[in-house]
């Protein structure tokens, strides 16, 4: 079966977050390294982070950090500088916690020239990686299209990675809801997308999956997550995802609404059942 978990709170510390993730049936988890609503830097507890890393190593648990929502790699000027410092802070925390990397949304340009937005993303990544010397990766996440088409296609992520100065410091996070909502994954056509991703080398750099169902149909460009198998992707769609060989060793993390008990325990149980069925 696959490695799967959910997004968890770090209110009681990074080590406690890892323990909680496992207590509800996870073998992976995601967390915000700091306040997800601002670009403010955080002086974090390195002892707690080291305990988290050690505990996860002992128990075979994978983790990923998710950067603050205001980070937009397509920005420029002073805003881009602040976002660079913010992500360097996130990478430092992720490294200390033993995490794979920090998820950053692809970004969206606000100017009249769409190509400038892509140039800004390349420059921003270069600015971060120039000052980052750890193992934690920048994990670019595909977008749903609710802010425009930028960052919805796997070809864009692959191309951006190929153009930055240190591509080895960049990986991808695939969000299933975003992929579906953007229309890049059409209902019943996962195999077509998987083969397309295979041809361009996209799977080679996917280091995490956001496992989310979609409240709206393919092509809606609405980023609204549904519980697993309760949205438009549905049971059959996830069976196809789980059967993709390139994803067998990639952690899956739920960002879906919690179940009635306030946790993702039931959904994780379902994910394990579906993944086991997909592997038969």
UniProtKB/TrEMBL annotation:
Enzyme Commission number(s) of this protein: 3.1.21.2
Protein's name according to its UniProt entry: Deoxyribonuclease IV
SMART domains: AP2Ec
Organism: Cohnella cholangitidis
Entry cofactors: Zn(2+)
Annotated NCBIfam families: nfo
Lineage, opening ranks: Bacteria, Bacillati, Bacillota, Bacilli, Bacillales
Family (UniProt): Belongs to the AP endonuclease 2 family.
Keywords (A to Z) from UniProt: DNA damage, DNA repair, Hydrolase, Metal-binding, Nuclease, Zinc
Residues covered by the Xylose isomerase-like TIM barrel domain: 19-259
